[in-house]
Amino acid sequence: MSFHTVEHLDAAPLNRDAMAKLVAEDIPANSFVNLGIGQPTKVSDYLTPERGVILHTENGMLGMGPQAVGDAIDLDLINAGKIPVTELPGTAYFHHADSFAMMRGGHLDVCVMGAFQVSAQGDLANWSTGGDDSIPAVGGAMDLAVGAKDVYTMMTLFAKDGSSKLVTECTYPLTGLGCVSRIYTDVATFILENDAVYVRETFSMSVDELRSRVPVELLTYS
Amino acid sequence: MLKIAQSADAAVSAITEGSTVLIGGFGTAGQPIELIDALRRHGAGNLTVVNNNAGNGDVGLAALLGAGLVSRIICSFPRQVDSYIFDDLYRSGKIELEVVPQGTLAERIRAGGAGIAGFYTRTSAGTPLAIGKESRMFDGKEYVLELPIRGDFALVKAHISDGMGNLVYRKTARNFGPIMAAAANASIVQVSEIVDTGALDPEIIVTPCIYVDTVVQVDADATHGKAKA
């Protein structure tokens, strides 16, 4: 895929909704997609039915519909974040081993996950901060990382201390090696291809400013 | 031959101290709360529990942990907003935790029921969860050897059983039920309805009766997600 790098210098940094909308617009029509818990769940708000995207949820469902409200709430019908959801026409249910065979077997086109850090090689860290008193909990993140054909991640580019979460090597415990293909952040979108990191577009800052704050070689599309 | 228990307490009465118990459910969906409550009253301790999570709130699995009956838990995602009972036990060193990637957990259980001695998966390769595990390269990629999980008992929630123990489930409450029923020496299943043998369309049966040892009917309102909402 080829792009032309665009700098939106007058734009504000993207908020969570704007990031979710951007991801949704990039998901190919008619693809099978898994949205991770947390921020990626918002992506479904921007997937219109005409796109034909079919959502997979790790707890055994293809064809997941919007969040359930009112009388539609059924506690036997939840998503990976344990939020009540609805079923769309054509929904299928299956057990957990089948659900993860779909992932591991390479049948999902795209998964979208949050990230603590992503390295220039596409290594992903998103399941543990490695703190002494943190309780390790991985869920399906490692299975998604190796299984989906494309792994998109969403995060703010800079941590609270200003350091970049796009790094040369992840310092947090790894979820998967070389698995990330796109990084959506509040100030820039990155494409990882040909063993390099390309800036596709920026919001509120220039590529030069990104280069001054991100310790990874950033290429641009001409 | 299927045993139809008259109560959840009777259904779990054979579970002994130190057993490994596979418990179905993803969060509360498919969690066999009535069977777990009965196991807590039964009081067999030093259990190893296999579940995707480590309990929610203070009911079901969380209450079993809170009663001090579980010494070890194998799960993929113990840390949740409402897993405070587990959090306290873990931080005070009163429970041993084995964290397993969710798909690896499911496949290890499936392997346990299917007579597979182990399998190689790319999941967790190169991560801290692969440390100490045998790995092997296939087609230039690293795969990690994972071993099966079996249970002495499984506690499963299904929707309907027939008189032989053929089961159907409801929506995403199916989750770990079918694979856990197959991977236990004795599987104990709570359902909201038992129908006559022959009343279920054979084409829709999810768990065939060969995997089911005991069935107990519990209050339908308690097991039917819709009614509880």
Please provide a written account of the structure.
The complex is a heterodimer of chains A (222) and B (229). Chain A is of the alpha/beta class and 222 residues long. Chain A is 15% helix and 30% strand. Chain A has four helices and 14 strands. In chain A, the strands form two sheets. In chain A, strands 1, 2, 3, 4, 5, 6, 9, 11, 12, 13 and 14 form an eleven-stranded mixed β-sheet that branches. In chain A, strands 8-7-10 form a three-stranded mixed β-sheet, with no helix packed on it. In chain A, a hairpin with a 3-residue loop joins strand 11 and strand 12. Chain A is globular and about 50 Å long. The mean pLDDT of chain A is 96. Chain B has 229 residues and is an alpha/beta fold. The longest helix of chain B has 13 residues. At the A-B interface, helix 2 and helix 3 of A face helix 4, helix 5, helix 6 and helix 8 of B.
Summarize the structure.
Chain A is an alpha/beta fold. In chain A, 15% of the residues lie in helices and 30% in strands.
Sequence-ordered SSE layout with sheet pairings:
The complex is a heterodimer of chains A (222) and B (229).
Chain A: E1 6-8, H1 16-26, E2 32-35, E3 54-57, E4 61-67, E5 85-93, H2 96-104, E6 110-114, E7 117-119, E8 124-125, H3 141-147, E9 150-154, E10 166-167, E11 180-184, E12 188-193, E13 196-203, H4 207-213, E14 218-220
Parallel strand pairs in A: 1-13, 2-3, 2-6, 6-9, 7-10, 9-11, 13-14
Antiparallel strand pairs in A: 3-4, 4-5, 7-8, 11-12, 12-13
Chain B: E1 3-5, H1 8-11, E2 20-23, H2 33-42, E3 47-50, H3 61-66, E4 70-75, H4 84-91, E5 96-99, H5 102-114, E6 119-121, E7 135-138, E8 141-146, E9 151-157, E10 160-162, E11 167-168, H6 177-182, E12 184-191, E13 193-195, E14 214-217, H7 220-223, H8 225-228
Parallel strand pairs in B: 1-14, 2-3, 2-9, 3-4, 4-5, 9-12, 10-13, 12-14
Antiparallel strand pairs in B: 6-8, 7-8, 10-11
Keywords summarizing the entry:
heterodimer, A: 222 residues, three-stranded mixed beta sheet, globular, B: 229 residues, 24% helix, 27% strand
